[in-house]
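Could someone model zinc ion with this protein?
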Amino acid sequence: MEVKLVTNVLKANDLLAKELRSTFSAHRLLVVNLMSAPGSGKTSLLEKSLDLLKTEVRVGVIEGDLYTSRDADRIEKKGVPVVQINTQGGCHLDAAMVIRAAASLDLAGLELLFIENVGNLVCPSSYDLGEDFRVTVISTTEGNDKPEKYPTMFRQSRALVINKIDLLPFTDFNLDEACRDARALNPEVEIFPLSARTGEGLDPWCRWVRYQLEAKRAQG
Ligand code: MG
Ligand code: ZN
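Reply:
Sure, complex below.
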């Protein structure tokens, strides 16, 4: 019974995600679903990426959070359109929430939309948000066993950002092992080791995002 219920919820979500995807593509919008455990630095990554991207690309953000608007407040300071979703304790975003949030954004005025998911490496991977692709963020202050422990999320991501490389000397994080494990799950994955704090490694990541935008445009 329980399994059936979950299946129905996911099916309903998939239908709404399909609707979202066609809305996004009508606006020729590239949509990135950003996922990680809490504290990996999704918001910091966004802040630094916006600094580099916003002069060339019209970018907006949907911020998912359990209760607060702290992350949205940080993004707002960057001067880009941002909408907050509070899940009231819900541990993932779903397509219905994104539909409501997207309604208060001027999608026609945007080229790129980041959706920061709720910090959680498990169930966000089950909920399609109509995105073009997913990016998972892990950080060097977590164990480098994250890919093996949460394979679904890593399999589904077009890119993996490994944040906080400035802290590598102070951790036991094994960068080579993390990359190897991630590629074993997902041979096509692009990996970006960087530090959202110092800005090291930000350029290749932002270049890749712009490339994804151009590739989507070329598709028509
Ligand atoms: Mg955040
Ligand atoms: Zn959840």
